[in-house]
Amino acid sequence: MRIAIGSDHRGYHLKEKLTAMLRTSGHEVDNVGTCVTESVDYPDFAILVARQVSEGRAERGILICGSGIGMAITANKFPGVRAAPCTDEITAEISRLHNDLNILCLSADMLSQRNVQRMIEVWMNTEFEGGRHARRIQKILNLEKSLRCPDSESRT
User: Fold this and answer.
1) Looking at 9, 65, 86, 105, which residue is catalytic?
2) Which domains does the chain have, with CATH numbers?
3) Please, are residues 124 and 86 in contact by the beta-carbon 8 Å criterion?
């Protein structure tokens, strides 16, 4: 699976470990940064990952900052992206089963490395359940379409 991964400075070390873990598991990983531990702005990296997922260049994404919340807020601005912070194996599993979450947002400050590794395993291996959940996801996609601004060519 092709995965885009990004973090701010607070998530840098965890991102590097997860990148190696995912590659060892056979996934193609695009590490979009940051590549520094000095302060950077999390939206810059959320945009890079969310754009790849939104455009279909990555099947899934992982974003890491201090809480995971800012990354999720930013990523959810992109069409087709469903991003949320997860805190344990149960939320990671439900996010895939019921919400077809395509960007997992993680806290570098509040989760243990062991917990994160297990969450990633569960999240990567859980398939979307479909059924009534697919109907709900379609409603979200329809809402996104209705809220999009018309492109410049259609303006008169």
Assistant:
1) 65
2) 2-154 (3.40.1400.10)
3) no
